[in-house]
Design goal:
about 500 residues; alpha/beta; Nucleotidyltransferase, domain 5; 23 strands; globular
């Protein structure tokens, strides 16, 4: 606690797509220990993406045990949990998992999205009821898919939870969520911060399927004896509401105030701008969600394959680097030797379809402009530029909504590489900066845990006491002008991502 000696620590847990990360954070903001346990992704069909929630729990218990083994002899005062948004955990009345979770990047629910729009009476009602479009990644279409395609499983359904809230249930026995994650279900009204009975009535689902909603920094459960035995946490340890990974990631770099914006590279990529009131894109190309800070919302554009696109490319095209200590760094070094625009090669990063701005799960990735003169270095540069161009689509929408940022905070994979930081600055035409913490959503979750037990009066104070920003790195005006032409080429190649009609 500021001004008071305290040996307590705060545990931040992030249930991601590629792994579960646990960190211990001191009251001064230092990271005392960190551990990550990897997860695998199942793709039973093209465009599908599933994970077993029990694998999340096993990875979470392992990550917590490992981080506690590393940490100093100090008390964990509270736990905060972050997690991948939208992914659907289907539970029966005993709390058992009915089937694997359909993930945020799963694209099988196009028919269910059309059903939602029809039942609602059009997208104007969706803007009013839930502030967002019916997209395949959201939770509600997944529930309807279960009802339409696996009726026996749907007949067993008693509770629908999100990833982090399933971990809370296993850790504390409490069924609960909070506004930032609930916002991404398409069953929650972000403007009014409550479940939307209008939406639920339209699709004929009962409110009883959904958990109670508390605040992100409020204590929403305590570690049970069983949870403590499996993790090493003391029974009774408070567990706060936590938040969606994007909201916690923004909090973890201090982007909680209107006027700021953050660009994040995880498996997906986002550009997020906090707002003092719920702002809704008239075209519903971007999302409107509650932030983890009370009284704050955010508008966010989402690129479904950012770091995920680069990881796919690395694994498929750079297998000769598999035994290298830093295969991605080697690829980036190759790309830096190629001029902007990759000498005519364009990459469209739509490996799992796309959300912003296209709202089309059927889109697929493509390299355009290849010739015998091109090398792997050209392809690598095109992949990195393609992800940045997709993120620039999101920045463009923010500007159209009057949320033009003066600079961008960078986090995730796009913040760790000097070359990718420079690419973002020059492609966006904005100064960029980073913060002194690289732990992402887990760090934001730990700050929420600290706020929840009174170590800080609020999240703003926690951010001010624990985070410092690097000096702004300006965009190169000449490079930005060059990239404007190359960005227009990227947009002109969009037709290559549209699959032919069968």
């Amino acid at each position: 606690m500021p001004g008071k000696k305290d040996d307590s620590l705060f545990l931040g847990l992030d249930v991601g797509t590629s792994g579960v990360k646990a960190i211990l954070v001191s009251p001064a903001g230092a990271v005392a220990a960190a551990a990550t346990v990897p997860l695998s992704l199942d793709t039973p069909c093209p465009g599908w993406a599933e994970q077993d929630p029990e694998a999340w729990w096993d990875a979470s218990t392992a990550a917590i045990r490992r981080v506690l083994e590393q940490g100093p002899a100090a008390r964990v005062a509270a736990v905060g949990i972050s997690g991948q948004m939208h992914s659907s955990v289907f539970l029966d009345r005993t709390g058992a998992v009915i089937r694997p979770a359909l993930l945020w990047c799963d694209g099988r629910t196009t028919a269910e999205c059309r059903e939602i729009v029809e039942r609602a009476g059009g997208e104007a009602q969706l803007r009013e009821w839930v502030c967002n479009a019916a997209l395949e990644g959201f939770t509600l279409p997944k529930v309807l898919w279960l009802r339409n395609h696996e009726p026996a499983a749907f007949a067993r359904l008693a509770t629908v939870l999100l990833a982090k809230d399933f971990i809370r249930l296993r850790l504390t026995g409490t069924v609960a969520t909070e506004p930032s994650d609930a916002s991404g279900t398409l069953m929650f009204d972000p403007a009014r911060r409550r479940w939307s009975r209008d939406m639920l009535d339209a699709v004929e689902l009962p409110l009883s399927l959904l958990p109670e909603v508390g605040e992100s920094a409020a204590v929403l459960g305590r570690v049970t004896e069983q949870g403590g035995a499996l993790t090493g946490l003391a029974p009774g340890t408070p567990v706060v509401g936590g938040g969606a990974d994007n909201a916690c990631g923004a909090a973890g770099v201090g982007a909680i105030s209107p006027g700021e914006a953050v660009s994040s590279w995880g498996t997906s990529g986002t550009v997020l701008a906090p707002t003092a009131e719920p702002r809704v894109d008239p075209g519903l190309r971007a999302h409107t969600f509650c932030h983890v800070a009370p009284g704050v919302w955010y508008v966010m554009g989402v690129v479904l394959s950012a770091g995920g696109a680069f990881a796919w490319y690395r694994d498929q095209v750079a297998r000769d680097l598999a035994h290298s200590d830093q295969p991605e760094a080697h690829l980036i070094e190759e790309a830096a030797g190629v001029p902007p625009g990759a000498e005519g090669v364009t990459f469209l990063p739509y490996l799992q379809g796309e959300r912003t701005p296209h709202r089309d799960a059927s889109l697929r990735a493509a390299f355009v402009g290849l010739s015998l003169a091109h090398s792997r270095a050209h392809l690598t540069r095109a992949v990195l530029e393609g992800v940045c161009f997709a993120l620039r689509d999101c920045v463009t929408i923010l500007r159209e909504l009057g949320l033009a940022p003066g600079s961008l905070l960078l986090t995730g994979g796009g913040a760790r590489s000097a070359f990718i930081r420079r690419l973002q600055a020059d492609i966006f035409g904005l100064p960029v900066t980073t913060v002194n913490r690289e732990e992402g959503p887990a760090y934001g979750a730990a700050l929420l845990a600290a706020v929840g037990v009174g170590a800080f009066p609020d999240l703003r104070a926690a951010v001010q006491c624990t985070l410092t920003r690097a000096p702004l790195a300006d965009a190169d005006p000449a490079a930005h002008r060059d990239y404007q032409r190359i960005y227009e080429r990227f947009r002109d190649c969009y037709a290559a991502a549209v699959p032919p009609r069968s």
